[in-house]
Amino acid sequence: MKAEKFVELIGADFYTGVPDSQLKALCDYLMKRYGIDPVHHLIAANEGNCAAIAAGYHLATGKIPVVYMQNSGEGNIINPAASLLSDKVYAIPVIFVIGWRGEPGIHDEPQHIYQGEVTLKLLEDMDISSFVVGKETTEEELKRALEGLQSVLAAGKCIALVVRKSALSFDGDMAYGNEHAMTREEIIRHIAAAAGESPIVCTTGKASRELFEIREANGQSHQYDFLTVGSMGHSSSIALGIAANKPGTRIWCIDGDGAVLMHMGAMAVIGANRPKNLVHVVINNGAHETVGGMPTVAGGIDLPAIARACGYPYAVSVDSFGELDRELTAAAGRDALTLIEARCAIGARADLGRPTTSAGQNKAAFMEYLAELS
Fold first, then answer.
1. CA nearest neighbour of 271 among 309, 328, 327, 316
2. Within a 13 Å sphere around the CA of 167, how many CA atoms are in the beta-carbon half?
3. What is the per-residue pLDDT across 288-312, written as a single tens digit (0 to 9) for each?
4. What pLDDT is stored for residue 90 in this prediction?
5. b vs e for 80-98, b when ≥16 Cβ sit within 10 Å of the residue's Cβ?
6. CA 143, CA 149: separation in Å to the nearest integer?
7. Can you tell me the distance from the alpha carbon of 196 to that of 330, in angstroms, rounded to the nearest whole number?
8. Which of 225, 196, 232 is nearest to 210 (CA)?
9. 0.70 exceeded by the pTM?
10. Which of 2, 32, 112, 182 is buried most deeply by CB count within 10 Å?
């Protein structure tokens, strides 16, 4: 189904969400039609944030908003869905559009498998009626389903359209870019060189894939790296937990701007505790690049200033490899919590692979290595 028709049948004029590769056609269409416009379309920090924005829209207009997300975001909406939107509380109707990663029977990455299994069950448990949209779903079928769910929305309840792989398409051309020159893979190569044999916790998406391939190309062990293949926004907290318990070892965290935004409160906790052995590197391309390149707000904010306000004693932004290498070298010898923001271009190699070891193997090797360190 064309994304344009999908939007037309839903009939809403406000969308907010966190981009998903499975919903790329919808995201691209919304960007083409609205761009970023607080009246019609907002890309938010996390899915709970989206639910609250949608609630505000409904309170102001009386109309029904749409929240789009990957199914991994269901966890972030449980609280607002249960304690804000629910018909037992404020009865605020929302239409959720959810990309179904890890659908049973469809091959996917390990972080999506369990989430895919429980996607519909979680919606059922939250009393959110759902309809599954697949490649074979006709416009008439979706129209009838939405008509049948109008009474649910009228009662102040939420509904969900769960979108299968390749169910939506968009023929428009959307290109995302910025003015920065450094590539993420090369930035990670420089970080790995500076870290040496110190442990690295790497955020989800293409960053972890690139780090894995850098180790392969260098003939290095993967024992140094914890690849946070899921759990977006939590890599820095994992790194904090390790740094606190391995005070004699420098811990590096490779983060992304979208991940930092998703759970920015983690920076306040890290800053308050000030682990002297933690280096937090945020690769900022101002985009959700792994899922298609849709923008984040990080391109226009001062992350080092936020870090300093949170208690990081040292925070800096770099925009060239000369600056990056200077700051990485200094961080490796600094006895203080450090944040380095590396401004980065959007894009990755077309032939970028995926880790060939399992999540369990990654965990076991990493823990075995950590056990050797002080």
1. 309
2. 24
3. 998 989 999 999 999 999 999 999 9
4. 98
5. bbeebbbeeeeebbbbbbb
6. 10
7. 14
8. 225
9. yes
10. 112
